[in-house]
Amino acid sequence: MATSARASATTPAPAGDPLLTLASQTPWVTPDQPWFNIAVGVGSAAGPAAGLHVNLTFYGRMNSGSQLQQAINGSPSGGTLLHENDVPVTSGSEGMTASTCVTVLPDDTVTPPTAGPGACAAGGSTLVLGCTPLTGRCGDVYAVSVALESPGSTSPLARFTTFLTYQEPTAVGKGGPLSVGVVVPVGANGVTTLAAALSDHGDVATTLAVRPAAVDPTAQAQSRESLRALGQLAALDATEVLGASYVPVNVAALAGAGISGEIGAQVSRGNELLRTAGLRPSGGTWVDTTSSFAQGDATDLATGLQEAGASQLVLSDNDLASGGESNYTFAQPFTLDLGHGTAVTAVAADSTLSSRFTADPANPVLGAEQLLAGLSFVHFEDPYLPEARGVVINPAPGWQPSGPFMETLLGGLSGNPALRPVTLSQLFATVPLGGNHEPDTRQLQSGPAGHGISHISADRIALARQQLSSFAKAVTGEPPPELTTLSDLLLTTEAKGLSPSDRTASLDGYERAFAAETGKISLATGETVTFTAQRASIPITVLSAASYPLRVVVTLASDKFIFPDGNTRPLLLDRPTTSVRVTAQARTSGDRLPIEITLHTPNGQLLLAHSVLTVQSTAISFVGVALTILAGAVLLAWWARTWRRSRRRRLQAH
Questions:
Q1: How far is CA 393 from CA 287, 288, 359, 653, in A?
Q2: 151-185: string of b/e by CB count within 10 Å (b at 16+)?
Q3: In whole angstroms, what is the distance from residue 171 CA to residue 166 CA?
Q4: How do residues 214-260 score in pLDDT, each as one tens digit?
Q5: Which CA distances in Å does 163 have to 27, 135, 368, 403, 537?
């Protein structure tokens, strides 16, 4: 049901704000409630109220998307239906405002109701649309140009275009109203604002894309307001929470870099944090409208989506090859062909409509009304199509939630006869693939694969994951928070949008943190020991400054020694100092015989510590002594035989 201009959005523009802002307006009008109320705020820089007035110009229906966009950009076209001039600007405790009310009739034969919510005062202006009632020609979107002017000025001080939406009971056909999937990003900033707006309009179905790091209680202190806001979001019955990666990632880039296993780690950690915050993440739908996908990414995208457990995809309409057989806005799900017999059910987020989230942050109510007008226009392209249609809107990165914007958008969707807010799951379930004779299969735009992660960075990430996993497996008992922090830090290095230098710096930071943690384990073995016997025990001492127990393996290696009882010893480090003795037998004597000592995790994939022990062996080897005596005896026999022969020759000579 149409209502009067929303009181929740009527705060006028304070000093320092734009000269002219939309404060509120009637979201749509109907034959039963044909009154269009509009209020604007005027900035103090415009001058005193006594010298200001507002003019409104009402134009005919929008006939094309380009005409709608032209009007949004400030240049409406088409026939003029009404001039509402010299609306006075008044000054009050909340600043300067101007407001008016116009009665909207399909033609001049219709008599409006005499009373109702938001009814115009007697003597107000009447806008005649010039169409025949109940024929399907009246319901549509009409541009309204609003200009702030002062006496003697040759041009307006400020101007914007909003829209009037007229709806008739017959303006919804067999296909029903347009399904609207609103994806709402939830980050560290603005969660309180979003929770308040969504709670105020609990009947409006939305899909929340909550960033897990933003609700991680270990990463940042949660204020009472934030905790309360999370509780409000968790209590919303009409809202779907998307499963999410720990940080936003490009699954095709991770798969293309050969580290697709990281996708599962991202999603597992992200969903864990969402559940810890009291939210209930759903699976199956992956939303990425900021990465750029092309044909060269198709195989990697298929692999990445499989690793993420996603069977449905929402991507930007800019990533698709041209498609659609009609002049209407493409508003159907489709099968995205990813080649080699793989495909995924997909919906393209409308980038033009989504741009209204961030188009005019200083005039949020206007941005929301322009978005609602764009959505209504899609419905009124042909409200009598036989099958349901649906669109997805998703703010661009960096969007800062605005209370007036969200209150206006959600209020305009609540109870709207032409627009039906749905979750993404509901949209995929209720809007048919290839409906209304649109193509049921589409392809990505042509182009090579993107290279979001270099091979060098990918190799570093893979090695880091292998080493961290090896270290984590060595820990006994519950995983300590230090390892969780390290894992989160590694996941952060995989975020999409990082420049090569930023990713390198992020990996450097992770490796320093990992080295600091593993550096808590060290060898305290002395540099030199002395053997006074052929066989002796070598003392090995391992120091641990870690707050958790872990298992390690000590290994000794040398070509100068043998180890009768084996050269490895498993150890449980559950105290600051752990010692063990390893029996070694010298193969020879000497004063600098090396023994290499290493400390590994049990699976051998991570070297924790390394040392070289120098051994001085003064022990006598019985084998060596025997060989020495034997050699001496042989030498003595040779010398004796030689002496006798020499003496015999001398005697014979005489």
A1: 11, 12, 14, 124
A2: eeeeebbbbbbbbbbbbbeebbeebbbbbbbbbbb
A3: 10
A4: 888 765 556 778 888 888 999 999 999 999 999 999 999 999 999 99
A5: 9, 22, 11, 21, 90
- C-alpha 550/C-alpha 162 separation (Å) is 65
Which tokens hold the place of 630?
């034997």
Distances (CA, A) of 155 to 89, 147, 148, 311: 17, 9, 9, 55
pLDDT for residue 577 is more than 80:
yes
User: Among residues 495, 401, 5, 475, which one has the least CA distance to residue 182?
Assistant: 401
Are the CB atoms for 368 and 409 separated by under 8 Å?
yes
Q: What local confidence, expressed as pLDDT, does residue 51 receive?
A: 86
Residue 116 vs residues 103, 109, 157, 169, 307: alpha-carbon distances, Å:
12, 20, 35, 18, 56
**What is the DSSP code (8-state) at residue 320?**
B
Cβ pair 567, 558 in contact under 8 A = no
Q: For residue 634, give Cα distances in angstroms to 202, 367, 623.
A: 106, 108, 17
Structure tokens at 360: 């005019």
List b or e across 237-271, with b for residues whose CB sees 16 or more CB atoms inside 10 angstroms.
eebbbbbbbbbbbbbbbbbbbebbebbebbbebbb
pTM, rounded to two decimals: 0.87
Give the pair of three-digit tokens for residue 408: 């206006």
Determine the Cα–Cα distance for residues 423 and 179; give it in Å rounded to an integer: 9
Lowest mean pLDDT among 205-209, 327-331, 485-489: 327-331
What single-letter DSSP state applies at residue 405?
H
Contact residues for 135 (Cβ-Cβ < 8 A; gap 6+): none
Q: Is 202 helix (H, G, I), strand (E, B) or coil?
A: coil
For the record, the structure tokens of 178 come out as 């347009």
Q: Tell me the one-letter amino acid at 55.
A: N
Tell me the pLDDT of the chain averaged across its residues. Answer: 90
Query: Do the Cβ atoms of 180 and 424 come closer than 8 Å?
Result: no
Distance of alpha carbon 77 from alpha carbon 490, whole angstroms: 54
Q: Are 561 and 583 in contact (CB under 8 A)?
A: no
d(CA 557, CA 610): 11
